[in-house]
Amino acid sequence: VRATLALLGLDLGELVDALSAVLFLAVMSLGLYVIFGMMRVINLAHGELLMVGAYVVWWLDDHGVSSWAGLVAAPLLVGALGVLLERSVIRFLYEREDLSTLLATAGVSILLQRAVSLGIGTQPREVAAPIGGNVSILGQTFLIYQLMAMGLAVLVIAAVLWLFRRTAFGTRARATIERPAMAEAMGIDTGRQSMIAFALGAALAGFAGALIAPLVSVVPTMGADFVVQSFLVVIVGGTTELAGALGGSALIGGTRSLLTANLNATVAQMIVLALAMIIVVVRPQGLFRRS
Amino acid sequence: VDGLTRRGFISRAGAGVLVAGMGGGLAACGESGGDGGGGEQGAVKIGLLTSMSGVFADFGRVMSEATTLAVDRINDEGGLDGRRIEILREDDKGEPGVGAQRARRLLLQEQVDILVGTVSSAVTLAVLPLAERSNKPFIYTVDRENFACKPGGGVNPLVFGLGDTPYQRQSKYVPYAVRKFGRRWFLLGNDYVFPRSTLKVTKDLLEQAGGTVVGETYTPLGTSDYLPIVRNIRRTEADVVFAVVPGTDGVAFIKQARESGLFDAMTITGVATFAAEIYPGMARYAEGVYTVDRYTEELDNAANKRFVADYKERFSPRTPIGPAAAATYGSFLMLQQGQERAKGVTPEAIRKGLEGLAMEIPLGDVELETDTHLLRQHEYVLQIRDRKFEIVEDLGPVSEPASAPCGAKQ
């Protein structure tokens, strides 16, 4: 395996690092996609939902509960928070074909950030990985947690794809995404679909937060660092295909990780942004949208 | 639809600005205004300009607490020149524009006698011309740039800098680390002015100490994925990783480096990365790390023992007390001691009181040097053991050379 990779000028370690960046970004962007695709709501509070997910894991960890529990509790609680937000704020704004959902979710993002700052404090919090340490494979060192998180991300992504492609819910959801008026005419309760979609999108953000918490510093402002990248994914991947979220993640996350390893992080960021701009100009509908 | 998405993305940036603005507004309501009573006749008014919100809020909070402690102590001991000190607090939010506006309020509207504070060097730079124009003494306690100078040469008579410059921090530590940990160094920093200027000093000192740079990389602020960088560092087989990655980025780097086993392969050290103020985010991962700083709560001097005991009793901090609190507290002790040399709080008296003043403050024995208006102070090799910054070695007092380039602008 190593010889083949070397022949291609690639390094196994770099590839795995890139793949883990891609999978994490895909979980995050899928949530954004589900909410946007279903309701045309650009959820500016997505990063803050991730942040709340990370704090759930920290809180459990701090109270002596295993971080494994956090990986389950975070998506559930953040999903519930999603239902609350959808019922109390977002659903009143669907009818308005303007930017009011943008303003509303921006408001929610500020609210969540300030609430956590005031309630828990601004100082960084520490979360330990449920499995620490590292392993050596083919002469490369990997975090055990990194490999485990990749596995979990694959499972969650597969579950979301299965849900949308193979279940009755998914059929109704895709109908709502592609032809909302027709779907309603066919008797689909699009309001209920929207609530479930918002909860699912929020739960995915919460899960992403739980996944990343052991690798970073848990602070109230942490969402901003991740949300920008997942918005890039949605811009690049297009907004109507689930696969767009995956393809967009591969392009944005993979390019950034591989360029960081081989050039430097600042240049990597510049190139990724330039790439996104070129794609917006050349293919405004997104790379992965069927025409 | 895609147009809307992009607009959403741009709005996100706008929302970020809004968050910063709102946050500051809320904090300002709670924090500005005088200390009890306020405006009494004959009180010495001292303005404390610091970050009560924004990225430096953790520093601002401890500076504000240390100020309360110092001022209560000095007022109990008779105040300055027989007058009580009244503190007026303003939040600069870590932004130069806000800092300038709040400094103007303190200096012109409130007519404070002395201005103390600032965390961000961008704010210090914005405040300097205002302090100069209003002819009021300005003591910055945390900022580590050389701003007390005049660009054309000489010192700014009423500006005093207590922060240790990158040269002071590293001039003895870099040779120490080369001897102790090895000659092949990898330099890692965030991609903005402070890490770059700090690492430039590191590079010069490393060359003089006979070491070599085997790799160097800078990451944009807000980087959370350090795994590709950790892999690159490992490949260089360096002896030492010298990291200047303050804040949450540093926490991400340390956690990922520790879990990858990089700590077993080489020594990871640096400045600003392991500051006591951000340490709670990486406590379990920074165990055993060596760093260098001008202060630790563990310092064994009389001034520090009293400071630490009083601070713990008053505020029960959950994290180690750091240099920002200690230096700010020290600045008030120096103002008090300065009264022995020149009575009163006129700008001239403050200058005479502080210039050349040598005394013990929680940082240890210090001297406010006449030729630079910067603080000659000790640097200590520290090791994080059992969640404390233990002293490994006192590297002794270090001065910023008077010939060093001036950071202040015309």
Count of separate DSSP helical elements of chain A: 12
| N- to C-terminal distance of chain A | 38 Å
SS element count, helices of chain B? 13
Q: Strand arrangement, largest sheet of chain B?
A: 1-3-2-4-5-6
Order of helices and strands of chain B: HEEHEHEHEEHHEHEHEHHEEHHHEEEE
How far from one another are the termini of chain B? 50 Å
Low-confidence runs of at least 5 consecutive residues of chain B = 1-40
What structural category characterises the helix and strand content of chain B?
alpha/beta
Structure commentary:
- The complex is a heterodimer of chains A (291) and B (410).
- Chain A has 291 residues and is mainly alpha-helical.
- In chain A, 72% of the residues lie in helices and 3% in strands.
- Chain A has 12 helices and 2 strands; from the N terminus they run H-H-H-H-H-E-E-H-H-H-H-H-H-H.
- Chain A has helices at residues 2-7, 12-39, 46-62, 67-88, 100-119, 144-166, 168-178, 180-185, 190-212, 223-237, 242-262, 265-282; strands at residues 134-137, 140-143.
- In chain A, strands 1-2 form a two-stranded antiparallel sheet.
- In chain A, a hairpin with a 2-residue loop joins strand 1 (134-137) and strand 2 (140-143).
- In chain A, helix 2 packs antiparallel against helix 11.
- The longest helix of chain A is centred in the N-terminal third of the chain and has 28 residues, at 12-39.
- The two termini of chain A are 38 Å apart.
- The model of chain A has no long low-confidence stretch (mean pLDDT 88).
- Chain B starts with a helix and ends in a 12-residue tail after the last strand.
- Chain B is 42% helix and 21% strand.
- Chain B contains 13 helices and 15 strands.
- Chain B has 410 residues and is α/β, with parallel strands linked by helices.
- In chain B, a hairpin with a 6-residue loop joins strand 13 and strand 14 (375-385).
- The longest helix of chain B has 30 residues, at 2-31.
- In chain B, the strands form 3 sheets. A 6-stranded mixed sheet of chain B has the order 1-3-2-4-5-6, with helices on both faces. In chain B, strands 11, 12, 13, 14 and 15 form a 5-stranded antiparallel sheet that branches.
- Mean pLDDT of chain B is 87; it is low at 1-40.
- Classes of the chains: A mainly alpha (291), B alpha/beta (410).
- Chains A and B meet through helix 2, helix 5, strand 2, helix 10 and helix 11 of A and helix 1, strand 8, helix 8 and helix 9 of B.
